[in-house]
Structures are given as structure tokens and as C-alpha cells.
Design goal:
The chain is globular, with a radius of gyration of 11 Å. It has about 70 residues and is mainly beta.
Length: about 70
């Protein structure tokens, strides 16, 4: 992709297709859903913006999450 390095909350490098877990409960804007701490998110996609990844969960599709709330699984 480019020379942008994506890192999780612990400083571990993230890549396309990695699995991550949430380190805190997150409310999803535009819905009544709350993603709970510890939720496993598989197959993330890196974006053009550092600090953000795209992913899908069982309940919500097309999410953009900030890497500061993620931990590599």
C-alpha cells in the first residue's frame, strides 16, 4: 500500500486481514448498537487515513474503527 504504519493501542503493527479485539465498549454512531469490550473483529482492512481501519462485525457492516481502541488478537 504505502509507507504508513498502522499500530494498535499497544504499538503492535497491523496489516490487512488481521484480527483485532476491542479494548473498550464503543457506541456505534447512527445505530443503537454498542460493541462490547473484548469483541473479536476479523479481517480488518487498512484505510488511507492513519489510525483508522475498516471492518465488519456480526451486527454492523462497513464500520470504521480507530486503532487506539484495538488490540491485535
Amino acid at each position: 500500500m504505502s509507507d504508513i504504519v498502522f499500530k494498535d493501542s499497544n504499538g503492535t503493527a497491523l496489516e490487512d486481514g488481521d484480527s483485532v479485539s476491542l479494548i473498550k465498549d464503543l457506541k456505534v454512531k447512527g445505530t443503537s448498537e454498542t460493541l462490547k469490550r473484548g469483541t473479536l473483529v476479523k479481517n480488518i482492512r487498512l484505510t488511507s487515513r492513519p489510525g483508522e481501519v475498516e471492518c465488519n462485525t456480526k451486527k454492523v457492516k462497513g464500520l470504521v474503527l480507530k486503532t487506539e481502541f484495538l488490540k491485535k488478537a
